[in-house]
Amino acid sequence: MKFKNQLIAAALLLMLFPGKMFAQGEAAVPFLLLAPDSRFSALGESGTGLADNASAIFWNPAGIAFLSGQEFTFTHSNWLPQFKLDLFYDYATYRNYIPEIDGSVTASITYMNYGEFVRTGETGPEPLGTFRSFDAALTLGYATKLAKDWGVGFNFRIIHSNLSDQPTAEEQGSGVATTVSFDLGAMWRPSTMVIPFTDYDMGNQFSFGANLSNLGPKIFYIDKAQADPIPTNIRLGFAHRIFADEYNSLTWTLDFSKLLVKKDTTGQSEEFYQALFTSWVDKPFADELRDIVTSFGLEYWYGQPGDFLFALRGGFFYEDPSFGNRKFMTLGAGIRYDIYGFDFSYISTSVFKGGENHPLSDTLRFTFLVGWDALPESIKGLPRGL
């Protein structure tokens, strides 16, 4: 297989997951947009407004500004199980609150394995060897409070894409590319918020978050003329703890997200700092609204902090049929005991017409976590047992 065909083969794998941008080749390294953890994946892939565990590095780094203690998580998922391919996704995170710097330092490693490929020559199908294709990213960040109710977060990321190990014959490029990006997040979690014309105080029950992620230069494998943008994305999210008593808690989450990438009719893309603005006006306004992905979820906790805790989760993810047509339901559960926790999530597309054979159907994610003095905000304020 020629180097160009190797890239095409890997690109076809990318097309199979998330939506119109991959189908049209609008952005490279799309693995950066995959929901990485089990908990928020089970909430319809909505977590920007809650973002209250170590995976907030992805959803909204500002959420970590409201957290204390330390936490480590590891997530694994066999990707696109319908195709029975050697695709898997791993995600590890760490956060640590440091009083001396009045904030938390964070780190994450993302790894997407595309499997093994056979290298062939230009003149025949004889195999010349094998290689593995993968994408990976290392993210480092910092989060702190600007005020009692406001948090901010910043991430810096190194992205490495290895689609092929070497060129074939006289082809140029190695199939390996590296670039960098950064994220900016903000979170408002008011301690007091009285609804106008009522006596209802939503303080410590409501939060709003915004995350601008993957801001950075284009990435290229062969030459700069063929560079593609990375998937710059904006997310807005809300969370509201609907109900809580001594043993029960119910929280609702809602996210809106949009890809901020623009390509012209010749395939040339704008720089990320231009596309931040022009990607909102390159289509009629009605289409721009339809291009926004909507997701929401519900999370129920039973138990008391400091004791055994059990969670049930469900959600829904919707993308307009003209802009990717991803629609799926999500389910999940989790447990916490002492410093340990385990979460899983499941994607179901079978409830939609033709969804039985959808590439994302039956996708499972599993997350193991260890947290020292680290509880989700959705249950932290509940009464503790004696």
Plain-language structure description:
It is built from seven helices and 14 strands. With 386 residues, the chain is mainly beta. It has a 14-stranded antiparallel barrel. A hairpin with a 6-residue loop joins strand 3 and strand 4. The longest helix has 13 residues. The N terminus and C terminus are likely disordered.
Number of strands: 14
What's the architecture in CATH terms? Beta Barrel
Integer-rounded radius of gyration: 21 Å
Q: Sheet with the most strands? A: 14 strands, antiparallel, barrel
CATH class: Mainly Beta
Secondary-structure-derived class? mainly beta
Spatial ordering of strands, largest sheet = 1-2-3-4-5-6-7-8-9-10-11-12-13-14
Helix fraction? 10-25%
Which superfamily, in CATH terms, is the homologous superfamily?
A: monomeric porin ompg
Low-pLDDT runs: 1-24, 382-386
What is the CA–CA distance across the termini? 67 Å
Oligomer: single chain
CATH fold type: Porin
* Strand residues, percent: 35-45%
User: What is the arithmetic mean of pLDDT?
Assistant: 83
Count of structural domains = 1
Number of helices: 7
Structure at a glance:
It contains seven helices and 14 strands. By secondary structure, the chain is mainly beta.
